[in-house]
Amino acid sequence: MKIPSNTGSSNEITEALQSLLTSNLSPSEFTRRLFYLNMEQARASDPKLAEVMRPCAIPSAFDAEIIGLLRNAPDDKETNERLLKNLSTFSFVLARKDGGYTYHDNTRDMLLEEWQSEEHRLQFEQLKQRLVAYYQQRGKKLADLKDYSSALADFTRAIELQQENGDAYGERGQTYFVQQDYPAALADLSRAIELQPEEGSNYFWRGRTYLAQQDYPAALADLSRAIELQPGNGSNYSWRGWTYFSQQDYPAALADFSRAIELQPEEGNNYYWHGRTCLAQQDYPAALADLSRAIELQPKEGNNYSWRGWTHLAQQDYPAAMTDLSRAIELQPEEGSNYSWRGWIYLARQDYPAAMADFSRAIELQPKEGNNYSWRAQTYQAQQHYPAALADFSRAIELQPEDGNNYSWRGWTYFAQQDYPAALADFSRAIELLPKVGNNYFWRGRTFLALQDYPPAMADFSRAIELQPEDGNNYSWRAQTHLALQDYPPALADLSRAIELQPEDGNNYFWRGRTYLAQQDYPAALADLSRAIEFLPEDGNNYSWRAQTYLAQQDYPAALADLSRAIELQPGNGSNYFWRGRTYLAQQDYPAALAGLSRAIELQPEDGNIYSWRAQTYLELQDYPAALADLSRAIDLQPKVGNNYSWRGRTYHAQQNYPTALADFSRAIELQPEEGNNYSWRAQTYLAQQDYPAAVADLSRAIELQPGNDVSYSWRGWAYLAQKDYRAALTDFSRAIELLPEDGSNHFWCGVTYRLLNRPEDEQASLDLSASLSVVETDLCRRHRVQGRLALFKNRIDDARQYYVKAINGLCQDIQLRIEQETLVLLANLFSDRGDIREMSEWFNEQLKEKRTAFNDQRTQISGSDNPRYF
Predict the structure, then answer these.
(1) 320 vs 326: CA distance, rounded Å
(2) Distance CA 399, CA 192 (A)
(3) 475 has which bridge partners?
(4) Are the CB atoms for 727 and 757 separated by under 8 Å?
(5) What is the predicted pLDDT for the residue at 20?
(6) Within 10 Å of residue 199's Cβ, how many Cβ atoms?
(7) Alpha carbons 642 and 667: distance in angstroms, whole number
(8) Structural domain boundaries enclosing 287
(9) What does pTM read for this prediction?
């Protein structure tokens, strides 16, 4: 059925309808003819309606505003609304869910067929152009109002009507870009470029789309093309500059931002980005100038203040940074980064409550930003709130699992808690993520050092030095590792290098001083420790170690002065009292020594070394029960330290409890098989038990370990004498004389041996030399004992008794007197025909008993207690 160009009369329509109802047509043809008749009814109902029916088929949808546009009467709103209302009553018009109306497909097809005639084609194109322009204009307005869905619909309608319209594709592409639908944006902008290859804006927007996808090469290509086509458009340079900035090509970025500023001198963003580029290049004055200009042009833009604040922060101008960041927060109260940076300033100022408040607010605003947790954790860490710090660092790691710094900081927190395995795990992960950052190796090295695992510690410090050869701390800590290994030359080399790099750091002098002390280079040690005190006058450790150096030089007053100062600075540090106690012990000021060592024990009750030295003090005072108690406690605390068993063995020896003493010396030898003194003391115990073969065996081992120790030769000479092996004895006493020729005692024993060998001339020469040496002996105890022996041996009994009285009542220690008693016993056995020697031995033993009784009485009176621990 051909639709006539003019509406038919009502009678004609009625007749056609009756004919249609009685026809045998297919359903689709029936529907088509029915809609046709309905359209004819509409045309017949209103001439104006007939005018707009065919134009309304051009768009896919229409409303009163479209009708007005098609009629070219947009202001005749009343008529437009009436025509829409009338048209909507017909069955071939359908209401759309999104508003407006549309024709039934059959109806629209028939109406569009009408437009194909030559007489209607020109009007059709005119109306279509009018609609395209309308949709594009309205789409732009809707986009400006951020009604992007409606804007997209209008641009799509324009494209449907005019598929070669590059502007419509460009505008729809820009809208997709704003909605971050980058694939759709790229498709439309690429089509726009095909249709308008000389239109720079399409390249501009496609370049920005590539930039949003971080496809920097494609972005640069498009933005460069945009600049070729629009060389006077500053935005093209600005965005290309941003692309270069994103690639850290700062010189190229600066050039583009500078050109943008020339073209748009009143555009604040150009100064902002120029300033940020200068900041990235650490050109802080230029950055401040740019950001200040940006603030002049955009005084309400918070980012300008934020980044100027960051620039001030980089220059450590905290007041200016604080002012800018606070202003940024006023302008952008919901921007978390501003709180984060201001929190960092509070942290640098050690204003921890304010820092905590800002970091916590940053976390509220940016709960997925790991840096906020990391900085709050560092604030907790600075306050030694380690559990809270660990929680925040762990959250930062969850959010930023590839950021090595978070592992490094958490590792440091574990290190501070002495959780070294956890610290090692974190530092190792930090190294995997940041293999070129020396600090991670440095801290892992320190962790290995704390675990006394020296080889990996050395390797890590060496790697840190490779990466940071100008950081003195790396050399200093590697030196401490060398020192722990007793490898002193490389320790000194490293510390000297540390001092070159950090000549004002007192710690380096402190450690070099300790190294010199370990090498017994006391003048160099004193010089360095004194220098450390100059730089760190409030650090008690410096005074403590200088005191130990003075003690090693037997400069006791200087040592005591330094230790007193150390105690003033560190009254809770037990080691200072320990060393003061040792200094008093060296001066034989036993009450003061006990006081210092007892105070040290109060402060460090788990340090076995202190009990050991207090025991040695008690031993000097012949307070054997107290000494044994302290040594047993030392052994409980340090069951693998051989010296504790050795000293307890000496105490049992002094009590003549030889079996128990032997057990302790044997345990000391198990723990320290290369320590000659342990064999020497066990040998003396065997001698006291007259087990001479065992004594000789131990002394021979002691001599192997300490071939320069004259005492071991002397004792073995005794053992050989007791076994009547005079020639072996003479060899050992002669060797002892070679090692210590000024000791008159060995010459005396050579004289004794010569008599037994019936060599009177050699005997006389040795005894004469012993006598001459004893006269100049500065150790009065030794002098009086040797002189007593000489007098006794030469039958001058009264003179011998006088010398021995001086020894007993003088400075001789109990152990020395006990050894002298054993000497007299040996002489009595060697010369059994001389009853006077045996009588002298018995007299001497009685004198010792009387002295011990008097000493114990005096000690009780001084202490006011039967408990010698309070002496």
Answers:
(1) 10
(2) 41
(3) none
(4) yes
(5) 61
(6) 17
(7) 7
(8) 232-309
(9) 0.72
Centre a 10 Å sphere on the Cβ of residue 574 and count the other Cβ atoms it contains: 19
End-to-end CA distance of the chain: 134
Residues 6+ apart with CB under 8 A from 651: 615, 619, 624, 627, 628, 631, 661
Residue 248 to residues 151, 252, 253, Cα–Cα distance (Å):
36, 9, 8
Beta carbons of 636 and 606 less than 8 angstroms apart: no
3-state DSSP: the chain helix, strand, coil percent, rounded to 5? 80, 0, 20
CA neighbours closer than 13 Å in the CB half-sphere of residue 247: 18
3-state secondary structure of 417: coil
Query: CB within 8 A of 187, min separation 6: which ones?
Result: 173
| Crossing angle (nearest 10°) for helices 624-637 and 642-654 | 160
Contact of 617 with 590, CB cutoff 8 Å: yes
pLDDT digits (tens, 9 = 90+) for 328-383: 999 999 999 999 999 999 999 999 999 999 999 999 999 999 999 999 999 999 99
Q: Are 597 and 581 in contact (CB under 8 A)?
A: yes
Mean per-residue pLDDT over the chain, rounded: 92
Closest residue by Cα to residue 472 from 489, 492, 497: 497
Q: What is the CATH number of the domain that holds 254?
A: 1.25.40.10
Residue 251 lies in a domain: yes
Nearest to 193 by CA among 218, 161, 157: 218
Distance of alpha carbon 857 from alpha carbon 643, whole angstroms? 31
Please, how many CA atoms are within 13 Å of residue 411, restricted to the half-sphere of its CB? 25
The helix/strand/coil state of 103 is strand
Dist CA 259 CA 249 (whole Å): 16
The residues with which 62 forms a beta bridge, in sequence order, are: 101
* CA 483 to each of CA 400, 478, 646: distance values in angstroms, whole numbers, following the listed order: 39, 9, 27
Enclosing H/E stretch for 94: strand 93-95
**270 part of a folded domain:** yes
Cβ burial, residue 845 (10 Å; 0-12/13-18/19+) = middle
Find the mean pLDDT for residues 77-86. 91
pLDDT of residue 3: 37
Tally the domains of the chain.
1
Helices (H) and strands (E) in the chain, counts: 48, 2
Side chain identity, residue 143: A
Task: Find tokens 């800018």 and name the residue.
Answer: 324
- For residue 646, the number of C-alpha atoms closer than 13 Å in the C-beta half-sphere is 19
pLDDT at 813: 80
The answer to whether 204 touches 235, Cβ cutoff 8 Å, is yes
Residue 103, strand partner residues: 93
Is residue 242 a part of any domain in this protein? Answer: yes
What is the total residue count of the chain?
Answer: 871
Using CA atoms in the order 386, 391, 393, 399, what is the torsion angle rounded to 10 degrees? 180
Q: 103 phi and psi, to 5 degrees?
A: -80, 155
Interacting residues of 328 by C-beta distance below 8 A, sequence separation 6+: 302, 303, 305, 306, 309, 335, 338
pLDDT tens digits along 695-723: 999 999 999 999 999 999 999 999 999 99
Print burial letters for 751-777: b (CB count within 10 Å at least 16), e (below 16): bbbbbbeebeebbeebbebbbebbeeb
Helices (H), 196-233: 200-212, 216-229
Average pLDDT, integer, range 292-304: 97
Report which of residues 264 and 23 the model is more confident about. Answer: 264
Radius of gyration, CA atoms only, the chain: 52
Q: Is 52 exposed, middle or buried (0-12, 13-18, 19+ CB in 10 A)?
A: buried
* Number of Cβ within a 10 Å radius of residue 197: 12
Q: How many Cβ atoms from other residues are within 10 Å of residue 194's Cβ?
A: 12
Instruction: Report the candidate in 595, 657, 666 with the shortest Cα–Cα distance to residue 624.
Output: 657
Whether residue 743 is contained in a domain is answered as: no
Q: Give 22's DSSP letter.
A: T
Residue 213's contacts (CB-CB under 8 Å, 6 or more residues apart) are 182
